[in-house]
Amino acid sequence: MDRRQFLAAAAAGSAAAVSPWAMAQEWPSGPVRWVVPYPPGGGTDVLARTVAEAMRKTLNQTIVVDNRPGASTNIGGQIVASAKPDGYTIMSADNAILAFNEHLFSKLPFNPDKDFSYIGGISRFPMALVVNPAFAAKDFKEFLAYAKAHPGKLDYASPGNGSPHHLAMELFKNRTGTSLTHIPYKGAAPAVADVMGGQVPCMFLDLPAGLPMIQSGKVRALAIGTAKRIPTLPNVPTLAELGVKDSEVYAFQGILGPKAMPPAMVQRLNGDLQKALKDPEVVKRMADFGMEALPGTPEQFHAMARAEAKRWGEVIKAAGTKLD
């Protein structure tokens, strides 16, 4: 290699070495795409749009929500995993993509641990055990006694196989030694409708969808799967209070980007997210939905997600649930 070739190679290497930093310094100079792996109008979509609007104020750029539902969030996950790590593509990620799917599917188009940049947590959705108001059991103690006295004969609804609602009941069954029969539906709305109508007696229900039904008396909440009672349902005891150990059940959400995003971008997005979680409109929307904010660093979000993947992997294996 002559001197000119050596200098050219050195210059190219130097440019490659500094380009991520330079990219981060100039970013964002255009709209950011926020992939939501669910249809428009649901809790995930509404929350993403609310948080995106709050983050827009500090990013000084438009954030465009792009709904890409399908394959239990794997379609959206694949889009983001294969995107350029330039900070212009991020996504909402929940239990499915971060904790469930690696155990529910024999093969995924991405590795949830290694193929993403973890940016930060957004929120946790509490899950409550609810029954039709006319059901014979009036409280949790009576419900548990009924379930044990009628093994395999008590049905429960869920939005579908592998949903947080389904796996919450599988965890409950595992911890209480009960046997209930799963009735999967194609979505939360028909499942909740049949519990309210009495066709199916019970289910685990997430509060963003279920809080109005509980507060109006259309379903009765027997217990909630949070560590402490929540302000919106102060009279509903936790499963832990009722003697069910290791029984926290909730859906959680955060933000991911493609792997190898420049650290400066990740930190900038995380900082803007922390500010957004304190925005009055975001705080109000979360309170209205019965959500709990999930602030923290990218590293904390990653660690939490991997711990949840381990915990739910054990539940899924014990239940024998597969989606392929």
TrEMBL record:
Transmembrane intervals: none
Swiss-Prot/TrEMBL keywords: Signal
Keyword Signal applies: yes
Domain of life (superkingdom): Bacteria
Signal peptide: 1-24
InterPro entries: BUG, Bug_dom1, TAT_signal
Family: Belongs to the UPF0065 (bug) family.
Protein name from the UniProt record: Tripartite tricarboxylate transporter substrate binding protein
Organism, scientific name: Comamonas resistens
Lineage: Bacteria, Pseudomonadati, Pseudomonadota, Betaproteobacteria, Burkholderiales
